[in-house]
UniProtKB/TrEMBL annotation, chains A, B:
Residues 14-68 form the HTH lacI-type domain. Coiled coil: none annotated. GO terms for molecular function: DNA binding. It comes from the Bacteria. It comes from Streptomyces polyasparticus. This is LacI family DNA-binding transcriptional regulator. InterPro entries: HTH_LacI, LacI/GalR-like_sensor, Lambda_DNA-bd_dom_sf, Peripla_BP_I. Signal peptide: none annotated. PANTHER family: HTH-TYPE TRANSCRIPTIONAL REPRESSOR PURR-RELATED (PTHR30146:SF148), LACI-RELATED TRANSCRIPTIONAL REPRESSOR (PTHR30146). Pfam families: LacI (PF00356), Peripla_BP_3 (PF13377). Keywords: DNA-binding, Repressor, Transcription, Transcription regulation. Gene3D superfamilies: 3.40.50.2300, lambda repressor-like DNA-binding domains.
Amino acid sequence: MRRTRGPHSVSTTPTVYDVAERSGVSIATVSRVYRNPDSVRAQTRERVLAVARDLGYVPSGNARGLASRSTGVLGLCFPDYSDPDAESEAEAGAGGHGDEADDEAAMLYSDQIIRGMERAARRHGYALLIAASLKGGPESLVAKVAGRVDGFAVLARTVPTEELEVISRRQPVVMLAGPRESNDLDHLDHIEVANADGQRELTRHLIEDHGLRRLAYVGFAEESPDVEARFRGYVEACRAAGIEVGAEPDLRVAMMTQAEGARAAEALLDRPGERPEALLFANDQMAVGALHTLDRRGLRVPQDVAVTGFDGIALSRLVRPALTTVRQPMRRMGEEAVELLVRRLSDRAQGKTEDPVSMTLPVSVARRASCGCRAA
Amino acid sequence: MRRTRGPHSVSTTPTVYDVAERSGVSIATVSRVYRNPDSVRAQTRERVLAVARDLGYVPSGNARGLASRSTGVLGLCFPDYSDPDAESEAEAGAGGHGDEADDEAAMLYSDQIIRGMERAARRHGYALLIAASLKGGPESLVAKVAGRVDGFAVLARTVPTEELEVISRRQPVVMLAGPRESNDLDHLDHIEVANADGQRELTRHLIEDHGLRRLAYVGFAEESPDVEARFRGYVEACRAAGIEVGAEPDLRVAMMTQAEGARAAEALLDRPGERPEALLFANDQMAVGALHTLDRRGLRVPQDVAVTGFDGIALSRLVRPALTTVRQPMRRMGEEAVELLVRRLSDRAQGKTEDPVSMTLPVSVARRASCGCRAA
DNA sequence: ATGAAAGCGCTAACAC
DNA sequence: GTGTTAGCGCTTTCAT
């Protein structure tokens, strides 16, 4: 016995030792009661449980994890995706000023993934640890998460791939929505959506079904493989229809927010030459911003200009006209991520080693009012 | 030195010992490099960091937590709130069959709270561990979460209060949306919303502003303080207007789902006597279900019957007619929960002890089409 | 500025 | 079925 406390010590949080002592068994038995109840005589078990209850004993997850080398927790790291504009509108809504862009309207990317992962994790008996990147921590976010989970998913561009590279030697990591970045020195599993396919199909729809030919594409200034893939799809559809397009989007914005989208629309409309028949945005938030601009300038959507987004966030259905967009199966992505992690974990437990997996989830075009498919 | 491995051992995940050995310092120094970088000479620090990097070293959260008695993680336990109906509709949407009740439409209660907590937690440098109750685990959900976090929030009715009672002696716990259950032996902090106020105000609106007097209220069969409070508000408003009401809701359903709401509407309409002018439901999902029923039976909302919900979930805005409801500030609740936990934690660190806090967040009535406030 | 050593609370052989 | 005994990988005085 390593330690003994008075019979009525209450100050510290109770441990196995306290429970063991008070119930007249060894710490091993206390441990068994929790880990493998059937291996303990019923009577003993009840006694231990009773003592535990009245002592307020809760097994320390840390100690457990340390001793058993596993935590029963999966993780998710995501970037601080918050759109300042969406935020403020949401705040206003919550404050009761308006009904406009509701609190709940702003359910973003990461929320969906969280939902998907949580569900799947629960099915497999795991809990989920979530953490958004916070700039300037001494220890990087991943390290913190990585150290507390059995495996985790990372939304692309949250963390330098190099760092993940290192960590993935230690535990399963799946990269979400990202690029399959590095070439070969890459142990990471990877799930992405068919960005190019989606944008291509949407563009084709605009061209063939609505007969539009003067299109303008708004992309992202930063390097982002997903966004680039979308643009690629756009270009392919245009070329296929014999419409000439440059190698670059008509405009690249610094942030993919509503404000930037609104500004982009201004810029595009103020450009000399014929007005575009359709404005295609690399995400929904920008498209929503553009809707504001067009409304303010007295242009009707879709009669005067069609507008499309990408992502299929909830907000895209709430705006008027409802936004035609490409829906990403983000929830499913979360679920698949967990399935992958769980499989990896059991592989490792059995000493198996399989090659990294890379899967692509299909997307679907949501034809709504902003392209002219439904009454505005 | 407790352990030594060959210079090129790669099999196991590296620890402080490995890093220390390879960089010619003690494990204490390695630890300092991460915990308190400035206390280590720059040159030493760089060397250690370099070795760590190429070894793929990540500090074990478990070991850290065990040694330092804190995890840097806050938790949230919530019940498996999933509405089977909403689920299936969502699945259909995700599968691409329809645009109807979108995946994202189904953003529920818990999602909002998660969002709020995550944001606030991040601000304070914490990560968030989330876990929904899974029936029939050997160890209860809470115990698992409790053992891995510094403090946590629990959605009411997820866990027996008694169990929380015990745990709260050990770490801060805040009860969400619940009742202030026990009487005095209660150390738990507690955040609720003004259920009665909201329902009273909504009811008053129906009576005074729309001149309705034949109302029917649909409640919940299970014991639920929140839902009871809503009913209480309803009763108060009726009495204040001189409308007679019984001590019981006109109907109590077994589950607060869309299907049950639809059934409840049937039942109410089939009742002998004059048809009610308004159907008030204890939550949005039931109200949405009722909308289906009324539509199928050819009754117009709000002309023939007004319908109201409670909660303000995203779906409430998407249905036609949009649902008049009482919006709960669920996101804010999550934020407040974290603030409370963080405060408690710092109190404990300083040896302070304060009385349990109980706060009530205000709600607001969202007047939409289903009560006649806007064009349907 | 750095090292030595004592735990943190639990699990997992291995004995009995 | 139950007890003994090593660790698990880190933080943290206390020395130096």
